[in-house]
């Protein structure tokens, strides 16, 4: 995917991080952690529909859905006491929201590395965000294959 085809909302999030000093990037990540969208009511009582993201150190669970208009929605749960992981989940939930399946599948796998956080958080945490993105894409590919 070229720079010009990175979905605008993901490019905007990336640019927000890169405009800041490293220490302020962590504060922005914490802001994102507080903005993780609430689960829609239809998912709140159905933890069986979620997949654990084992690449994350904290217990993070995701489920994707595609609406009737073809827009992707990523729903995630992450504990409040894990703000880094929660922030990463929030970035993807907000950044992928409403994109088409093809647009999500075309997001570069190294998108988490482009946020300028690799100097502020451990590689293991960045790998967790990459795992979130990878599992999101796999769920969408499986959904597409199932028809």
TrEMBL record:
It comes from Agromyces atrinae. This is Cysteine desulfuration protein SufE. Residues 17-138 form the Fe-S metabolism associated domain. It holds the Pfam family SufE. Belongs to the SufE family.
């Amino acid at each position: 995917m070229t720079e010009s085809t990175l979905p605008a909302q993901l490019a905007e999030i990336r640019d927000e991080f890169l405009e800041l000093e490293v220490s302020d990037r962590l504060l922005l990540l914490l802001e994102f952690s507080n903005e993780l969208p609430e689960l829609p009511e239809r998912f709140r009582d159905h933890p069986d529909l979620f997949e654990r993201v084992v690449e994350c150190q904290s217990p993070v669970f995701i489920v994707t859905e595609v609406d009737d208009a073809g827009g992707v929605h990523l729903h995630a749960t992450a504990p409040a006491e894990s703000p880094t992981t929660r922030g990463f989940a929030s970035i993807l939930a907000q950044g992928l929201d409403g994109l088409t399946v093809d647009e999500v599948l075309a997001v570069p796998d190294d998108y988490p590395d482009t946020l300028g956080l690799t100097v502020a958080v451990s590689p293991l945490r960045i790998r967790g965000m990459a795992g979130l993105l990878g599992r999101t894409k796999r769920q969408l590919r499986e959904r597409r294959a199932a028809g």
